[in-house]
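User: My advisor asked me to double-check a structure prediction for Methylase before group meeting. I don't want to rely on an old file, so could you generate it fresh from this sequence?
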Amino acid sequence: MSTIHWTEAHTVRSARWHSESAAPPPGRVVVADDRMKADTAYRLACEGTAMVWRGDYHNARQLLRAMNHRLDRKPPRSGDSPAESFHLHRRARSHRARVLGKLLVLLEEDHSLVLRRAPDVRRACTEAYGPPCGPSAVSLSELLGVIGARQWREKGVEIPALDARIHPHYGVFSPLRGEYVDLVAQAPLSGDGPGRTAFDLGTGTGVLAAVLAHRGIDHVVATDINPRALSCARDNIRRLDLTDRIEVVGPCLFPEDRADLVVCNPPWIPAHPTSVVEQGVYDPNSTMLRAFLKGLPSHLTPDGEAWLILSDLAEHLGLRTPHEVPDAIEAAGLKVRDRFTTKPHHPRASNPKTPLHTARAAETTSLWRLTAT
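Assistant: Sure, here is a fresh prediction for Methylase from the sequence you gave:
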């Protein structure tokens, strides 16, 4: 367990260091309050010095915004290729996270935040971090993400295919981009009658498992390797009153036995995630995609099929060749029965000022219907 140390009122103090992005504990820490100027805070952060905030909560948020504005003055340059532009963009985002992550707040033994005008963050922190285990130091930017996640969890995301809301937990990919959900809701189902089974691999919030049950699948087994996702899926399945038809198991990718339908929406981009939330989008070397394809033949019933839902954003970014996915499907002993596509509806696809806009505008999400050869 990492610890940070600083001197305050001529007394050496310490706190347990917590970072969801696995950022190392800062080596140098100073105390900051309402007198801290934005230029000074930005300079210290760029030099690697962290600041424990002792002033007003809302002033801390304003200071964080001011530091962010200073980072905006140096936008990342474009590369000579889509792949280079992507890596430069990721490098700039990583630098931004490191700088903004240097403004720290202290959580007390019960996860409370003792600052002037601070909100009650105990429930949000308990849901994200688990039961409190002593005072800890976290970055203000991370805490704001925790607070935002609590609000999304309370509000939920409307899913037209379910005529209901899905409630994402902290660290679990939210189904805000609905096109992949619509593909699963509209793709033709093979066979009918009682006893049909399905696996939803990497279930996340449980939204696709719920859609499959909504479409008449009798028994759905949902899996994930992320304990937070398993808890989130169980919560949503209970909210939707589907516990008699959906079983959540894990942590694992494939459950035991075989299914008539195996569905998987793996992370789309073969790159390293820098936070827990990014694990739903970034997957180094397409590890989950390859494991899914490799394991399919031994988990499909003789007449079963699999649905692979995958964006081609990686191809437009130059991170994966156009032939890589079809070749991996063939190498796994599978064949493509059909393929359905849709265009993204999110604002980034239509905003020319969005980073990597050219690739995002060309993006297509596909549902590949696969069967064993």
